[in-house]
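Postdoc handover notes: sequence design on the structure in folder B. Input tokens:
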């Protein structure tokens, strides 16, 4: 399994109201595109944060690509995120003062890769998301769907093992959202990555290999 959570417990604050996840188990095999649905506040984003090592569980184990995150300090977790994880967010999180190509190149720059090979890889990803001719554009010159395509290219440019997508169609109209999800799925599959998609959208979830519903009692198939 590429991602494993075993008996994970996470709370924010004291008392039962602060408990978000309690005894959660999850196994995601390599290459799977998994969608997670559930009510607001049930812990879907917390799940992604735990997989990324942005939050630490109060109890239980989180293993990503063979690495038990409990054994990593903050610096090692940062390296793991930079090398093995790609992120796609609802709010895009592209930098407005950088061009499309510069935004896509950011994960490579953080890994110290800024040579001709890195530039070629950026070009490959822009072509893969249909933005080969927009590399010099600024994000404000693009539509919302195009900006999310930039985010997908950025998430996959460094060939991560895991892609985490948090409501990536939440700010898009239905037609653009459907295109973005199809593009995300195809890009993840072409890269051989494993993806966990958190979404309220039944349309987005339908593109996944498997759909789980997160409830207060754990996952329901």
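Designed sequence:
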């Amino acid at each position: 399994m590429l991602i494993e959570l075993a008996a994970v417990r996470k709370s924010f604050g004291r008392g039962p109201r602060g408990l978000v996840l309690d005894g959660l188990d999850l196994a995601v095999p390599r290459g799977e595109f998994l969608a997670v649905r559930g009510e607001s506040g049930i812990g879907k984003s917390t799940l992604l944060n735990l997989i990324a090592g942005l939050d630490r569980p109060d109890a239980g184990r989180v293993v990503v690509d063979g690495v038990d995150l409990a054994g990593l300090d903050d610096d090692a977790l940062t390296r793991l995120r930079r090398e093995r994880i790609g992120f796609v967010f609802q709010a895009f999180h592209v930098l407005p003062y950088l061009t499309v190509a510069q935004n896509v190149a950011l994960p490579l720059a953080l890994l110290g890769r800024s040579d001709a090979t890195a530039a070629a890889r950026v070009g490959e990803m822009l072509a893969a998301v249909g933005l080969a001719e927009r590399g010099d554009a600024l994000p404000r010159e693009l539509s919302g769907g195009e900006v999310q395509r930039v985010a997908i290219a950025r998430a996959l440019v460094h060939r991560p093992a895991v892609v985490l997508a948090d409501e990536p169609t939440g700010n898009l109209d239905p037609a653009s959202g459907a295109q973005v999800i199809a593009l995300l799925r195809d890009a993840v599959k072409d890269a051989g990555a494993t993806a966990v998609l958190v979404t309220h959208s039944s349309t987005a979830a339908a593109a996944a290999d498997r759909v789980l519903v997160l409830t207060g009692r754990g996952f329901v198939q």
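Context for whoever picks this up: The helical segments are 44-52, 74-84, 100-110, 116-128, 144-156, 174-191, 202-205. Don't rerun without checking with the PI first.
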